[in-house]
């Protein structure tokens, strides 16, 4: 049930919700505009006023025990209606009453020059949920992800504590989005926190400043100049003057964003806010964070403190609030740390068996004795010692020790303060239960802070049995927030990825894409076809991958939607709109590959590499990641993101190359199968197809890939066969039955099924059908020769040369007039020859693969040499048609002459297979781009000089043709030295008669500006002949040096495309290729006999064979990863860093134990420790890796030292050597 005040707040909050957004976004100085939205605060928030004057015996009746003077109390408070003698002790709850608050609004610090702070005077009995709602909903303070409540004394803070607050606390608050709660006054700890927040605000961005919220909770009666805050209608703002800023005072600190001024009716007294602050912390600890995934963690931090602070600690410990105590900061903190050390060192139970009650009494007595001794040392001036001892004993420190974490600030670095905070919270939660479900909140906190080291040491150390349900939400958070180390940790500790990654989870992951990512933008474009539905389904992801990967593989996720490859977008949309979402509860068929695609689309390097390690088909997956990233980099507009995508793409190509290299060294035959097998994960694409699409030139340059290509290129013939033997056999086919050409021997055992993997691969690569292995020798040898791609290539080259010779002969010697006198017989033969070429181009376009017609045409057009073929055939058709008519005969002849040039340039592609010419052709192609840039600059100078030259030399010339020649043609010839000096001097016949000039006569040149024409000519020749030409040469040189280094890789990559082209071509070349076309039509479309040559590049394997191949590939990948990790571990810096860190930790622990328990150690144990330290120091001293910058530490004490001093000296010497090495290596 709600209290009346709570009900009123809810109602008024709903009534004034329209003002909240306005006030949080803009501050208006006119109070009249803000009163309607603030007038409800006094109705909800109250203040306390002392209503009973209880005389303070030490003030001679002037002061009340509340701290106020008699004159400030009303007549009712000072009247003795009930007898003043009865009341001996003033109590806030009994002797004060609540009234509407009269101090609230915004605070402006005079001279501070910063934004206004919120403030509110409130009763100490105000419900904390009202204040939390007021701060977050009305004041616009963001909800915290962490609350650190800093308490301490008023004395001067030590320098190292200031450093911890500045470098540790504020940085941890900034990284987590925390509230830092202090007293908010310019004294002690509160002032140090304010200065730390101020320094952070001066150096951080505006976004980072909003993540650090400093809240001051101070007693109202203690605040200096509080009268200027009082205004029953609210102050917007209240101008607050801070006095004596160089020394500590009870003024409000200007570096805080909000002040809660707790009023218990007292004046000038401390502690009135303690109870409210503890209740506020407890309430916030049960609220959800800003993301809503976990409860807000609350941690109290004790710095120094007086005796009254022990009661504050006791109050929070009873509410199970964890504490972080800074050892060495002051009395109260040091007392608690000493008690913890004493309780850890001494026995807590009697050694002999006793009754439980008697043992408990004895233990309590021991605790009191130890506490009394330490309290007397830290608080010698306290009169009520026994009361303070009871308070310390009531802390039950040993019982609640898991709630207390000690930070040794003088020994530990402030850089690890966020680690200390998280460990304190995790340790506090571990005391509740050993059930994993009790630690999910802390696990989510560790994920939010990205502290996998703490999760490993505190949550995944074997004490907790984690289940899938406990890790599911944290796994989602780790995926969305890019925490790959946590994903690895979860996968190793009970999370089954097959159970986790359903299609529903996959949709959640894609809906969590960042708004600024390229993948999000691309998916949003696809969602426009969903008729307003904003839920990203696998259909959109599949379309996105189809746009990126192209037709190299089949669409993803179509099978779960019940669609096939040819399904239209309208049909897929209909399935989704019908609400058929049963697929969402299904597990992803390939979960690691799906996560890999998701990570690659977001350009998450570390996460993508981990998913690649976990996914199968390592070579294929790496090449697919390379392809996706390179396509995304073409669409990315931000330069930095584009560069990172290219780097990650190159990394995946290198990974594919490394794994395949390991596979090739392990087994050549299996590595060949790996290249050509169809991948069920990646849409039945092969590694070679994916590498081609990804432009993975380095991968193609590997010897294993080239070995497979050479094997396919030569077919069943040996690779050592000479070219002249092939040419001779081509013209004399009977020679193939002799020993002129050597063929590879085919093992007979391959038909028995399982002898060797290489024989099995040869069986798959054989062009003969397996149903008829025993062909006649004549037919078998005939097929082995003519069906080899190299034979097809040789035949096409020879016949193409004959075609060019025939074409040239007709153009030069046998080009007859139009009909009826022509064309000649040879010209008709040429027409038929070109017709067979057209038939082959049609076959390449429409009769290849199982893709759609549009995809086939698109794939055909994308090839540059296919465009060249289309141009040549189109020009030939145009020239052939034009030469048939007398009026266009000459034009047709000119077109055919130009077409001959195009056909001749086609030879460049043919010779790309040559090992020496191929790289040079690539260099020429790259240089052609440089020429276009050169021509652009040249055209600018030609235009500038040509127009000026024409205007100066000819005053009037209306002939457009001659103007064009003089503006562009003649200046171009000037570059090569053809300068008509006699024309400039006017030595030719000409006329100035405009009529004659218009009739075609040569106009006279003006000689008035010859000097200017000469100057322009000199400048033009200087720029073009020297500057631009040398620029072109420099560009050629740069291109040559850049491409020459990688020209071999380029050539090997193009060689694959050429081999694929001639592998798919019929064995006969034009014009005899028409016979092969008829044979293919009969065989494929009439007799329905499938092709066996396709197995050379595409191999489909299933079942046990596929499983064995995947396992073998995974083993090779593990070998590569193991070798890489070993190389990283073997680095000197990493190895010595781990060794030094481990040694320092072990020695620190052993030394602290040995010194604290030295009376119980034997002499032999101490001697062993001393010897071990001496051995370690000597080993490091003799190492060449350590170069010291200062002498070793001197031996402390006299020469005759005791053994504990020996240990200390050797320990210091060891740490000196380690520190010297670490500093010299920048570790």
From TrEMBL:
Main location (coarse class): membrane
Signal peptide: none
Regions of compositional bias (Basic and acidic residues) in chain numbering: 359-370
Coiled coil regions, renumbered to chain: none
Keywords of the record: Ion channel, Ion transport, Membrane, Transmembrane, Transmembrane helix, Transport
TRPM-like domain mapped to chain residues: 458-702
Lineage: Eukaryota, Metazoa, Chordata, Craniata, Vertebrata
Pfam family for this entry, one: Ion_trans
Region (Disordered): 346-370
Boundaries of every TRPM SLOG domain copy: 118-337
Topology in the lipid bilayer: Multi-pass membrane protein
Any one cellular-component term (Gene Ontology): plasma membrane
GO molecular function terms listed in the Swiss-Prot or TrEMBL record: calcium-activated cation channel activity; ligand-gated calcium channel activity
DNA-binding recorded as keyword: no
Listed InterPro entries: Ion_trans_dom, TRPM, TRPM-like, TRPM_SLOG
Record's subcellular location: Membrane
Membrane spanning stretches: 726-746, 785-810, 830-847, 868-888, 932-956, 1011-1033
Organism: Oncorhynchus tshawytscha (Chinook salmon)
Keyword Lipid metabolism: no
Protein name: Transient receptor potential cation channel, subfamily M, member 4a
Stretches assigned to the Ion transport domain: 800-1047
């Amino acid at each position: 049930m709600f209290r009346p005040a709570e009900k009123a707040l809810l109602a008024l909050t709903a009534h004034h919700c329209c003002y909240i957004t306005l006030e949080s976004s803009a501050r208006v100085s006119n109070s009249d505009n803000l009163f309607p939205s603030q007038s409800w605060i006094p109705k909800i928030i109250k203040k306390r006023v002392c209503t009973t004057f209880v005389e303070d015996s030490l003030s001679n009746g002037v002061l009340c025990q509340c701290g106020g003077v008699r004159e400030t109390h009303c007549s009712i408070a000072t009247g003795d209606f009930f007898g003043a003698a009865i009341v001996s002790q003033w109590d806030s709850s009994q002797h004060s009453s609540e009234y509407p608050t009269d101090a609230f609004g915004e605070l402006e610090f005079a001279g501070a020059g910063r934004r206004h702070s919120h403030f509110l005077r409130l009763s100490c009995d105000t419900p904390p949920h009202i204040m939390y709602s007021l701060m977050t909903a009305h004041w616009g303070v963001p909800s915290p992800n962490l609350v650190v409540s800093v308490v301490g004394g008023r004395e001067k803070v030590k320098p190292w504590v200031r450093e911890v607050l500045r470098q540790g606390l504020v940085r941890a608050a900034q990284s987590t989005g925390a509230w830092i709660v202090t007293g908010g006054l310019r004294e002690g700890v509160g002032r140090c926190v304010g200065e730390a927040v101020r320094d952070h605000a001066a150096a951080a961005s505006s976004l980072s400043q909003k993540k650090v919220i400093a809240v001051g909770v101070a007693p109202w009666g203690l605040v200096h100049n509080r009268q200027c805050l009082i205004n029953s209608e609210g102050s917007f703002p209240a101008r607050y003057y801070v006095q004596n800023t160089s020394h500590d005072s009870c003024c409000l600190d200007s570096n805080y964003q909000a002040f809660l001024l707790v009023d218990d009716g007292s004046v000038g007294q401390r502690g009135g806010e303690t109870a409210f602050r503890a209740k506020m912390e407890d309430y916030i600890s049960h609220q959800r964070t800003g993301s809503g995934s976990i409860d807000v963690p609350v941690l109290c931090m004790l710095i120094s403190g007086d005796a009254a602070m022990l009661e504050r600690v006791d109050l929070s410990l009873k509410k199970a609030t964890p504490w972080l105590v800074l050892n060495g900061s002051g009395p109260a903190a040091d007392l608690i740390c000493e008690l913890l050390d004493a309780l850890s060192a001494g026995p807590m139970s009697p050694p002999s068996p006793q009754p439980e009650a008697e043992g408990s009494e004895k233990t309590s007595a021991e605790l009191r004795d130890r506490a009394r001794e330490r309290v007397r040392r830290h608080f010698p001036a306290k009169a009520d010692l026994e009361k303070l001892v009871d308070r310390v004993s009531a802390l039950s420190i040993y019982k609640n020790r898991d709630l207390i974490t000690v930070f040794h600030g003088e020994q530990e670095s402030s850089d690890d303060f966020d680690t200390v905070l998280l460990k304190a919270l995790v340790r506090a939660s571990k005391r509740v239960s050993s059930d994993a479900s009790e630690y999910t909140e802390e696990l989510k906190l560790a994920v939010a802070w990205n502290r996998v080291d703490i999760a490993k040491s505190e949550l995944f150390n074997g004490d907790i049995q984690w289940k899938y349900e406990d890790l599911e939400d944290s796994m989602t958070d780790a995926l969305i927030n890019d925490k790959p180390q946590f994903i690895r940790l979860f996968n190793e500790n009970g999370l089954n990825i097959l159970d986790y990654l359903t299609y529903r989870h996959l949709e959640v992951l894609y809906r969590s894409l960042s708004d600024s990512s390229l993948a999000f933008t691309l998916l949003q474009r696809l969602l426009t076809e969903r008729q307003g539905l904003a839920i990203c389904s696998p259909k959109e992801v599949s379309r996105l991958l189809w746009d990126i990967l192209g037709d190299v593989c089949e669409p993803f996720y179509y099978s779960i939607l019940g669609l096939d490859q040819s399904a239209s977008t309208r049909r897929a949309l209909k399935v989704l709109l019908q609400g058929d979402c049963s697929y969402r509860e299904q597990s992803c068929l390939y979960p690691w590959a799906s996560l890999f695609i998701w990570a690659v689309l977001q350009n998450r390097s570390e996460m993508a590499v981990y998913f690649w390690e976990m996914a199968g088909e390592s070579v294929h997956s790496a090449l697919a990641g390379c392809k996706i990233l390179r396509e995304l980099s073409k669409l990315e507009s931000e330069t930095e993101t584009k560069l990172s995508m290219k780097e990650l793409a190159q990394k995946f190509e290198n990974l594919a190359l490394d794994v395949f290299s390991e596979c090739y060294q392990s087994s050549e035959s299996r590595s060949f199968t790996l290249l050509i097998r169809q991948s069920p994960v990646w849409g039945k694409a092969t590694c070679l197809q994916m590498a081609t699409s990804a432009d993975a030139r380095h991968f193609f340059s590997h010897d294993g890939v080239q070995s497979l290509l050479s094997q396919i290129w030569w077919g069943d013939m040996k690779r050592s066969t000479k070219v002249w033997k092939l040419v001779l056999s081509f013209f004399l086919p009977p020679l193939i039955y002799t020993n002129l050409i050597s063929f590879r021997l085919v093992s007979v055992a391959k038909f028995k099924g399982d002898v060797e993997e290489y024989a099995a691969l040869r069986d798959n690569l054989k062009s003969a059908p397996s149903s008829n292995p025993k062909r006649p020798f004549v037919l078998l040898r005939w097929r082995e020769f003519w069906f080899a791609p190299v034979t097809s290539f040789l035949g096409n080259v020879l016949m193409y040369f004959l075609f060019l010779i025939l074409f040239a002969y007709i153009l030069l010697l046998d080009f007859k007039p139009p009909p009826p006198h022509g064309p000649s017989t040879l010209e008709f033969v040429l027409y038929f020859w070109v017709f067979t070429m057209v038939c082959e181009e049609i076959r390449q376009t429409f009769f290849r693969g199982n893709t759609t017609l549009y995809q086939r045409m698109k794939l055909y057009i994308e090839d540059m040499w296919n465009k060249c073929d289309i141009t040549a055939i189109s020009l030939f058709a145009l020239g052939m048609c034009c030469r048939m008519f007398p009026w266009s005969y000459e034009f047709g002849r000119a077109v055919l002459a130009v077409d001959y040039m195009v056909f001749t340039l086609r030879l460049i592609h043919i010779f790309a297979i040559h090992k020496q010419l191929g790289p040079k052709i690539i260099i020429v192609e790259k240089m052609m781009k440089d020429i276009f840039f050169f021509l652009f600059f040249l055209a600018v100078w030609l235009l500038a000089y040509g127009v000026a030259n024409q205007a100066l030399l000819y005053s009037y010339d209306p002939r457009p043709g001659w103007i064009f020649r003089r503006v562009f043609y003649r200046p171009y010839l000037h570059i090569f030295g053809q300068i008509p000096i006699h024309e400039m001097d006017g030595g030719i016949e000409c006329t100035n008669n405009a009529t004659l000039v218009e009739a075609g006569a040569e106009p006279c040149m003006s000689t008035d500006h010859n000097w200017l024409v000469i100057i322009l000519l000199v400048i033009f020749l200087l720029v073009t002949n020297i500057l631009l030409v040398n620029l072109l040469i420099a560009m050629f040189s740069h291109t040559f040096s850049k491409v020459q280094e990688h020209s071999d890789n380029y050539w090997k990559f193009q060689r694959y495309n050429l081999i694929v082209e001639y592998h798919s071509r019929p064995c006969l070349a034009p014009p005899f290729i028409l016979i092969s076309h008829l044979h293919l039509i009969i065989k494929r479309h009439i007799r329905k006999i499938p092709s066996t040559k396709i197995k050379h590049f595409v191999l489909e394997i299933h079942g046990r064979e596929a499983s064995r191949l995947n396992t073998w590939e995974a083993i090779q990948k593990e070998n590569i990863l193991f070798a890489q990790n070993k190389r990283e571990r073997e680095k000197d810096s990493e190895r010595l860093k781990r060794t030094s860190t481990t040694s320092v930790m072990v020695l620190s622990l052993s030394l602290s134990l040995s010194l604290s328990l030295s009376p119980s150690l034997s002499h032999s144990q101490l001697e062993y420790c001393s010897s071990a330290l001496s051995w370690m120091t000597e080993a490091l001293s003799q190492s060449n890796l350590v170069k010291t910058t200062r002498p070793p530490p001197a031996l402390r004490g006299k020469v005759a030292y005791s053994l504990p001093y020996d240990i200390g000296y050797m320990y210091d010497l060891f740490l000196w050597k380690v520190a010297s090495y670490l500093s010299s290596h920048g570790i």
